[in-house]
Design goal:
Chains A, B: InterPro entries: Arg_MeTrfase, Arg_MeTrfase_PRMT5, PRMT5, PRMT5_C, PRMT5_TIM, SAM-dependent_MTases_sf. Chains A, B: One of its GO terms (biological process) is methylation. Chains A, B: Belongs to the class I-like SAM-binding methyltransferase superfamily. Chains A, B: GO terms for molecular function: protein-arginine N-methyltransferase activity. Two copies of one chain form a homodimer. By secondary structure, chain A is an alpha/beta fold. The radius of gyration of chain A is 32 Å and the shape is elongated. Chain A folds into three domains: 342 residues, Alpha-Beta Barrel (TIM Barrel); 127 residues, Vaccinia Virus protein VP39 (Rossmann fold, 3-Layer(aba) Sandwich); 216 residues, Hnrnp arginine n-methyltransferase1, CATH 2.70.160.11. At the A-B interface, helix 3, helix 4, helix 6, helix 17 and strand 22 of A face helix 3, helix 4, helix 6, helix 17 and strand 22 of B.
């Protein structure tokens, strides 16, 4: 790695290898060493040789001869591919094998509609996979099901089933399916022989049965089918072929969400700069920067680049051999040497010159797509380290301080009466759920800055945090704070030394979860509202929960894994730093080809304080005396029913996709115009660089496929009974046919009732 | 029941009740007795009274008044419906309650987009369901989510969620959702007050959000959503309102497949015959005949028929009371009496005059939709009773006899050489898998009829059946048969007394399963083929497996139940007498409005004898010496791979629907033009009234919804390794958008590998 880079964090290492379409250097420790000397990290190697290819082609030709001589296809057994001989493969279980990516034959056609061609192709493929597994290959690359750029829709499942079989027969290998981002002429090239040329297509293979190669999304759709058949196997990933012309931002974003493990950059993608050196254009460089920030950065394969010599040892006259020339004069300074491997040098240059990571990616390193159960601070007592992580947020507490500052300023300006019994004229502030006291500090700072006298209370139920608060009061707050050990819902309010019960003017809390209300802020604040003076205010004043549908294949695979042991894996929302995902509802692109903001909609809102009549009614219902049948609608006495919510949200999806669930965010108005937001559309403007909250994710059990111009109708509930709060969600899809929206799918109703948040 | 009916089986009893839209007779044992005296079996009863309705309406009006006086909606608590008083309900836990169907209020709107109306509606609904459950109601009818014939698509989920809640709070009740077959003006009537008239619709309730009431399929779509949200709960069923004009055969068939438990026939559906009596037109009568043959016949509710008197006791001037007049002169003979309840009498007349049941329904009574694991006759030894059931088939053995007759006739005509070592000129027949010998008997009869001399062998592996065969040989076949105890695959062939091994000329077997090859007929016949003479023939000569996509909600619910204990419940095909199902791929209707034949496609074919080269290659592969990597494609040595199959079938679905799986059938050519078929399209022509086989059913785990003009692409495999045979299947759906087929869904890949058929 180059140590000359400017930013502090070490630049991440890129793994760059070399791939040749036809043949590469011979398989040997020496070949690999030669490649590594010029700084390649890995090589690809075809599993079988041209000699093997010729043998199989000969078998098929013989078979077809017999047919032409009049033998009926029914009477002829399918040709059997015999076991490999040393002439058929260069591969061997050498130590260097871990640095090689084995490549299965591209001249077979697993998706053939001709049963004989399909059968022989399967035999070749099985042989190759089994032999690669025997040799200890760790990574195997498999050409996608494209035959001259076209493939029968009705045979994609047949191809996918072969991959599933391969996953079983090579249980320790990672399988990379080579697919172009978008159909591309490079991939349509079928150099030399191709078994599909022998195929006899059945009558039913009509034009409608072909995947249109002109459709930019067709290779993604193919991938979606393969991984669906293979049940999102985590050993299955994409070797993505980047085309010369990059496709739309929407397609780039979609592939970003998929398990990319290899990126292939073909020689034709490079352009020449004024120094006659191969470089990549700006869009390409941005794409690489984005893709290389994936949690597991893909490996890059330079494809058919560099000097190629005809291989004199090969029988096949088109066969070539790769050599790895070293700079001719190692003694000269690097800058004046002639670079014999300029494409690779350019990739290393890009690697060294990556822009620094954004704050959130630096802060969240390692947490990308890692699923966490939401906190239950009401039921559990948090540990100090958890508080400490939150307190590190560079934005959140500053904004709280601004909010308190604004509230005190307004209070003074409006000459509102205060509630203090002990210090007439002082505004009574209570921080409820004070934790280790960061909001107390900030409120005191705001009071000092505004010059408004305050009487400060801190209420905390966690006995461990309570110790810490008392110590801070003595050490830092000059004992100016009254610290109370209590669940805020049981606190009767400020008690003066002469035993009189007072009220609170400003109630400050930080009870919000990733989806605003999911850590029961509404229930807690309802429970403490009786201490608030009639003119009192709550910070936060209100909060809203927001949603948008997402494609998250990586997270889906992860939950599917959890689901093997846990029937409720899909019935619970997760807190997760969303990373490898794609927004599915994005407004129509303008002509600038920019990456556009998604449609993130508001599900519901909570405001504090709650109107007195509502609180009164809730109290009346407690115990079942008010409502008919004694009942809340979702069970219980209904005392908390004013905190139930429902939303029906309609999202337009312009491009086809597959929905794995809903991303959830929140916004909150602390006071006035001081707001916090994790909503990707507004967070930059409202609270950029805030790191305290990851989004929430509501999964769906069965991924929901939909075509272009669809609508996703999301129904989501916040349910409550006497003891807990839970969510339910479902998604229905519609698509426009003949000007009318028609129903195309309905998910199950998902419910977190078994993992509800306890009140 | 009338004993004068002509057919032998007693006509099934119809349960007929009475339903009144507004009010019925008072709830009491006496009312019920009166209704039963005129031959009604049950009555409906509203759970709450008009007084209750007025009370709730008053609450809402008060609430709206407060709003109009300037109170903000946010500040007003939602009105709470108080507990029921005796004035609010007539219902009580009397003994007669089991004969009553309780009806929830139709004046509420559970699907309202106005949160206050929705909330109050939910309160009323919860109260009613809870009180009905308390009273011991067994059947509860709930008006569907239609408000003046229109309902917000985006709020159907909200309605459905209320039903789910009700299923939980009334765990011993059966819930009937009242829906018209197709949107109908009768259901759009909202007599008197309706809460929805108070609703304030939010801005987003635009025109596109409404279910079009002109779409004939919209009520079925609504039902499909409700039961999906309720996870196909078996306590949830349809109370189907039959409209005056019956909809298309396609819609009639679809509802037939749904859990119909109540059929409502409105007074306006009756026409008057020349005797001025109310009758139903022919299409209606056919529909009733069809629906009343459901395994659990629905109950019929006559709706708003008969004399209705204004109820003098009710406050509501529109309220009415039903009385049940008895014939005025009971002494006169029935024929000349004036019938005061002519609609009911007509239903009883229809009941007595139902056409006799078809043979298959008589034979299969009780087996409708009952899921059975396919037989494994190769792995298990069948019991005598199983053989006996099969031997009762009125068609199958006759057809075998015809086939043997034709084969022997041809044999003699063609002067083919025979293989007999002991009786020169005799045709050697072997019945392999002879069971209790029915085919031996038939072959002997055919030989006698043709006059062709035969040498008869019977081979059977089941030691118990072997005893039986020997006894029959002595008793019935004059010891003319040589009975061999052997698995056919180990039988070396006919052995002459002098120790010479002969060959078989005609090999007869009955190894077919519901999907042709699913009981391993191909593998068994391969294994015995070595005994066949070069010119020998196999009866059957060939067989084919057939498929068509189906809607089977009842079966789906059943497998879902099994799935709670068995993870492979959806990964295995079932043998089942398909009953409450609907064909999803039916060609376009002509103008005759007939019920049309489905599109049933051929998946694959097996022919016997298998070409010698194919058998030879298989033998060569056994043990792994021939194929590369030693391997069959699906594992094992590949010796049985010539019996693997794959099919990709494309089915057009004209009308929208939901697919729960694939119906499987077979056809076989026994010999020449003698064929058997269970394919619903051809069975009438090829082997009408054959009862030996029920269809097979391949389920899908997640039902697949699709819109009109879709295509279902079915991929199905017959896989094999050295030890077993199994199937895999998946379904992809496409729909036509802008002239192009676009992908809309992909099922999982289902596999019976864990329950494969052992070889």
């Amino acid at each position: 790695m180059d140590s000359s880079q400017s930013n502090q964090d070490p630049a991440p290492v890129w793994y760059v290898g070399h791939h040749h379409s036809r043949r590469s250097s011979p398989f040997s420790d020496a070949s690999l060493d030669a490649a590594r000397r010029v700084d390649y990290d890995m090589l690809t190697i075809p599993i079988t040789t041209p000699a093997f290819q010729a043998k199989v082609a000969g078998m098929i030709a013989d078979y077809l001869d017999l047919q032409e001589q009049g033998a009926s296809a029914d009477e002829l057994p399918v040709p059997i591919v015999p076991a490999l001989t040393p002439a058929d493969t260069e591969l061997a279980p050498l130590e260097c094998i871990t640095q090689y990516i084995a490549v299965t034959s591209s001249w077979i056609d697993l998706a053939s509609a001709d049963p004989v061609i399909a059968n022989v192709s399967r035999q070749v493929f099985s042989l190759e996979v089994a032999y690669a597994a025997f040799c200890g290959v760790q990574n195997i690359m498999i050409p996608g099901p494209a035959v001259e750029g076209r493939v029968l829709t009705s045979r994609l499942a047949q191809y996918a089933r072969c991959i599933l079989e391969a996953l079983r027969s090579g249980p320790y290998m990672q399988f990379h399916i080579l697919l172009p981002m978008t159909p591309s002429p490079i991939f349509a090239q079928t150099p030399g022989l191709n078994l599909s040329q022998f195929a006899k297509l059945p009558n039913h293979a009509d034009a409608e049965d072909y995947v249109s190669s002109s459709d930019a999304w067709s290779t993604w759709e193919t991938w979606n089918l393969i991984r669906t058949v293979c049940s999102y196997n985590t050993r299955l990933s994409v070797a993505l072929g980047l085309p010369k012309q990059l496709p739309s931002p929407a397609i780039q974003s979609r592939w970003f969400s998929e398990p990319l493990r290899l990126l292939l950059i073909h020689e034709t993608s490079f352009i020449t700069n004024k120094h006659s050196q191969p470089v990549l254009h700006k869009g390409y460089r941005h794409l690489l920067t984005r893709y290389m920030r994936l949690k597991t950065a893909p490996w890059i394969l330079l494809w058919d680049v560099g000097p190629v010599q005809k291989d004199p040892s090969a029988d096949d006259p088109t066969s070539t051999s790769q050599t790895w020339p070293l700079p001719s004069d190692l003694a000269k300074p690097k800058s004046v040497r002639l670079d014999p491997n300029p494409h690779l040098s350019y990739m290393r240059y890009l690697q060294r010159n990556q822009p620094p990571l954004p704050a959130l990616l630096r802060f969240g390193a390692g947490y990308q797509d890692y699923l966490q159960a939401p906190l239950q601070p009401l039921a559990d007592n948090l540990e100090s380290i958890t508080y400490e992580v939150f307190e590190k947020d560079p934005v959140k507490y500053d904004w709280y301080e601004r909010a308190v500052h604004a509230a005190l300023t307004d209070w003074a300006k409006l000459r509102k009466p205060t509630s203090s019994l002990t210090r007439p004229g002082a505004v009574v502030i209570a921080v409820v759920g004070a934790g280790r006291g960061p909001l107390v500090t900030r409120a005191l700072l705001a009071a000092e800055a505004t010059g408004v006298p305050v009487e400060m209370w801190a209420v905390e139920k966690n006995p461990n945090a309570y110790v810490h608060l008392q110590r801070r009061n003595a050490d830092t707050w000059s004992s100016s704070v009254t610290v109370i050990k209590s669940d805020m819902r049981s606190w009767r309010g400020p008690l003066s030394p002469d035993g009189k019960l007072g009220k609170v003017d400003i109630l400050i809390s930080e009870l919000l979860g990733s989806f605003a209300d999911n850590e029961l802020s509404p229930e807690c604040l309802d429970g403490v509202q009786h201490v608030l003076a009639p003119a009192g205010i709550s910070i936060p004043a209100s909060y809203t929960a927001h949603l948008t549908p997402l494609a998250t294949p990586r997270i889906y695979a992860d939950i599917l894994g959890k689901g093997r042991d846990d029937a409720t894996a899909f019935e619970v929302p997760y807190v997760v730093m969303l990373h490898a995902y794609d927004f599915l509802s994005v407004p129509a692109a303008d002509d600038t080809d920019r990456f556009l903001q998604p449609d993130v909609q508001t599900a519901w809102k909570f405001e504090h304080p709650v109107p007195r009549d509502v609180i009164k009614q809730a109290a009346l219902r407690r115990g079942g005396s008010a409502a008919g049948g004694g009942g809340g609608v979702s069970g219980g006495d209904g005392a908390n029913e004013h905190n139930a919510r429902f939303a029906a949200l309609r999202f337009a999806a312009r491009e086809r996709g597959v929905c794995h669930g809903l991303g959830g965010y929140f916004e909150t108005v602390l006071y006035g115009d001081v707001e916090l937001s994790t909503n990707p559309v507004t967070m930059e403007g409202k609270s950029a660089d805030m790191i305290s909250w990851f989004p929430i994710f509501f999964p769906v059990k069965t991924p929901i496929t939909f075509p272009d111009n669809s609508e996703l109708l999301v129904s989501i509930w916040r349910h409550t009974d006497d003891r807990k709060v839970w969510y339910e969600w479902m998604i229905e899809t519609f698509t426009k046919v003949g000007g009318r929206m028609v129903k195309i799918n309905t998910s199950e109703l998902h419910s977190s009732i078994k993992n509800g948040c306890l009140m």
